[in-house]
Automatic annotation (TrEMBL), chain A:
Cofactors that this protein relies on: Zn(2+)
Species name: Paramecium primaurelia
Family: Belongs to the protein prenyltransferase subunit beta family.
Cross-referenced PANTHER family: GERANYLGERANYL TRANSFERASE TYPE BETA SUBUNIT, GERANYLGERANYL TRANSFERASE TYPE-2 SUBUNIT BETA
CC cofactor note: Binds 1 zinc ion per subunit.
Domain Prenyltransferase alpha-alpha toroid residue range list: 25-303
Pfam family membership, one: Prenyltrans
Designated name of the protein: Geranylgeranyl transferase type-2 subunit beta
Subunit structure: Heterodimer of an alpha and a beta subunit.
A Gene Ontology biological process term: protein localization to membrane
Record-linked InterPro entries: PGGT1B-like, Prenyltrans, Ptb1
Automatic annotation (TrEMBL), chain B:
GO annotation, biological process: prenylation
Record EC number: 2.5.1.60
Superkingdom field: Eukaryota
Function: Catalyzes the transfer of a geranyl-geranyl moiety from geranyl-geranyl pyrophosphate to cysteines occuring in specific C-terminal amino acid sequences.
GO molecular function: Rab geranylgeranyltransferase activity
One Pfam family it belongs to: PPTA
Catalytic activity line of the entry: geranylgeranyl diphosphate + L-cysteinyl-[protein] = S-geranylgeranyl-L-cysteinyl-[protein] + diphosphate
Enzyme category, top tier: transferase
Organism: Paramecium primaurelia
Protein name stated in the entry: Geranylgeranyl transferase type-2 subunit alpha
Amino acid sequence: MLQQQLVNHLPYLMALDKSKDIESIGYYLSEHLKVAGGYWTINAIACLNKIDQISEEKKQQLSKWLKECQNQDGGFGGNTNHDSHITNTHYAILLSFLLGCELDYEAAAKYVAARQRKDGSFEGDQWGEVDARFSYCGLSSLTLLNKRDLIDVKKAASYIKKCRNFDGSFGGIPDAESHGAYVFCCVGTLYLCEDLSFNIDELAMWIHERQTSKGGLNGRPEKLADVCYSWWMYSALCLLKREQWINQQALENYILECQDNDGGIADRPNNQPDVFHTFFGLAALSLLNGQKYQLNPIDPAFALPKSILINIPGASRFIQS
Amino acid sequence: MMHGQSKLKAEILSEEEIKLRAEKGQQILDSLDYFFKVRKNQVNQPEDQLAFSELMAKLCPEIATIYNYRREVLQTKFDHLGGLLSESKNIDIYKQLVKLIQSEFMLITILLKQHPKSYTLWTHRQWMVLRSQEIDQLISQINQENQFKLIEAIKQEYELCSKMLDRDERNFHVWNYRNWLSSISAFGKEDEFTKKKIEQNFSNFSAYHFRSKYFMKNYNQSENIIERIKTEQILGLLPLPFERLKQETELIQQAIYIQPKEHGVYLYHRWLVGVVQPFGVTKIEKVQNNSIQLQFNRPVTNVENSFEIFNQENVLKIINIKVEGIRVIISFEEQQITNLKIKIHNQIYENQSKETIISEDESSKFMVPSEINLTKNNDGFTYTNTIQQEFQNAINEIHKYLEENIDFIKQVIEEERENRFPYIQVLYLLQFKLRTQKLIDESKTNAIIKEALQHCEQLKKIQNDHQAQFLYEFWSQF
C-alpha cells in the first residue's frame, strides 16, 4: 500500500511549477527560494527515475532562467535579480548538472573560493555570516567544478573540527550546539576534505540516540522527529560506513508514514507536504532501500544522483560505491 | 520549506477569497519587482530609502537582498552622520545617530518576534551591534567633556536574549548570538545564566552544552597553572579546581535523579567525569637500538612534542614518532642502549599555553608527566616509571571521584531496572576506571572487566541494539 503511494509523488512534483498556487501566500514569499526549489524538485524527479518526463522545452526554459540568476560577481542569487550567496551558487551548480546545462563555472568557482576566510571557514556572502553550511557548499561546489586548488582544503577541515562538541557531534559554528542538519554539513565537508580523523564512533552513537520511538530521527535531544533528518544524518552514516547504527527498517517506515495521500512528503505524519521534505524523504529512501522502491540512488556526499555524478570528473574519486 | 504545518482540512475558498489572495500575491510580486529595479538603479531611489526598505522587510522578511540594500543605506547614513559628528560635536547630530541605531534594533526585534529562527535577521542584528560599537568608538574620541552618552548596545542585547530564551529555551540562534556577545564583551555571566536555565528545566540540553563550552574557556586566565595543579588539583582538559568540578557533578547528579529517562543529562555527566581522566604511560613494550615502543592507558593523538630521550644522560635525537591508538613508537639514532631516560611532558602546562580552547584532538597533550628510567640487560630490560608527585596525588583524587560517580550510577540502576541509560553510563564510567586503574595498578584491572561484562549482559536484555553490541564488543576484547 505505502509502496504504491510513491507513484503519487511525480504528479505532485510536476505540478509545483505550474501557474502560481494562488491559494498559498507561501508561494509568493518563497520567491527567493526558486533556485533551491528547482534543485529539490528536479532532483526528486530524478530520484524517481522520471527525469525524462520533463520536456526538452521545459529544460531549456529552466536553463535559460537559471543562467539569468548569475550575477556580475560570478555568484548566484535565489532567483533573478537577487544578490549572490554561496548557498544559491551551490544550488545553481547542482541544478545545472540535473538539467544538463552549462553555467559560467569559472566565475562561479571564483565567487565560491573568494568566500573562504583565513581561518578556513566560509562566509555566505560579503556580509560576513559564517556557518558550516557554507563550508559544505564551498567544498562541494569546488570539488564538482574541479577547482579545489582555489581554496585551502586543510584549513577548511580544521575549521570544521572546531565545531565538534563534548557529545561527539557537530554544530554549525564553533561553540554551537550539536545538530542533526549540521552533522551532514560537517561530515560532508570533512569527507570531501579527505580528513575524517575524529572519533567517528562517538558521532555514530549520538546519531543512534536521535532515533525516536516512531522510527524517525530528531535533530537534537528532546526535539521532534522530522523527515529531513533522515537524509541529513543517514547520509552521514553512509559516508562513515556506520549505516547499521540506526534501525534502518524503522526509519524507512517513518518516511513512508510521512507521505501525503495526494502526493508529496511532509516533515511528519499528517502534516502538509512540501518539496523540501519530499526530496529529502525520497533521497533517504534511495539510500535505505533504493532497489525496493525503484529509486535512483542519491549520493550521500554530493546529494545528486550517482547516475549524474559519474559524468562529473571532479566527483569521481568521492563517489560512494 | 515549511516545518510543522498541519494539513489543512480541504479548504473551500470562495471565489472572492481566491481573488483576494491572488491580488495580495500579485501585490507582493509587484513590490518586489519595483524593489529590484531600485536595487539595480534602474529607477530613481525612493526619497526615503529606509522607510521603503522597512516596508519591503515587513512584506518579505525572509529576502536577504532587502537587508543587503538596507545595510548599504544605513552604512551611508552612519558614515555621513559620523563624519558630521566628528567635525561639529553637535548634539542634534548625535541624537540623530542614536535614534537611527535604536530604531533599527527595534525594527529587528519586531521582525524577530514573528521569525525568531531567521538567519537573515540574526545576521543583520549582529551587523548592527558591530556598527553601534564603531559609533561608540567615534563618540569616545570626541567625548572629552562627557557630553555624550555611549550607546552600549550589548547590554540591551543580553536582555533580548533572556526574553527570547524564556519563550523558546532551545532556540540555537539566540544561544549562538548570546555566545557571540560574550566573546566581544565582558558582560555575560555565563556560569550564572546557564545554571539558571538548567534549574528552570533539567532537560535543557542547550544550557548544558554552553556550560561545557564555558568551562573549557579559561586557559589563558590561569597565571600559574603549575601552582594551581598542586593546590587546586587540576588535571586534564577542564581547568576547573577539583572542588568546583565536584559541585558541578552534584548538579548533574541531581538532574539525573530527577530525569533518569532523559538522554542528555547522562551525556553531560559522562563528559564531566571523563574529561579529567588522565593520559599516561602504562608500559614499555619493546626496546631496540633505534626505537622504543610505549603503551598508554588510552588512545593518544598529537603527542609528537611530549617526549625527551636520553642515553647515559646524552640527549638523543628523535627521528620519528608514530602513534597507533594506545601505542607510540619513538625512533631515534641507532646506538648501543644501556641506560635510557624518557621524559614524558605535559605540553599544555609546561609550555604555559596561551591557547584559550584546546581542541578535542589535542586532549592527550594533557599527559601525566613522568620519568622512565630503563636499563637494558642480557635478559631484556627493566624500567621504572615515576609520575611527578603533584600529578600522582591528583590521579588518586580523580580515581576516588570516579568511584563515587560509579556508585551513584549504580544507585540509579537499582531504581531504574528497565532503563538502559544508566547501564550504558556505568559501562562508560567503567572504561574510565579501567584507564585510570592502569596508571595506578595494572593488576587490579580484571575485576573491572568482569563487572563490566555483567552490566553488558543486563543491557542486552533490556535493548539489544547497536549501542549494546558496540559496548559488549569493547569489553569482550580483554
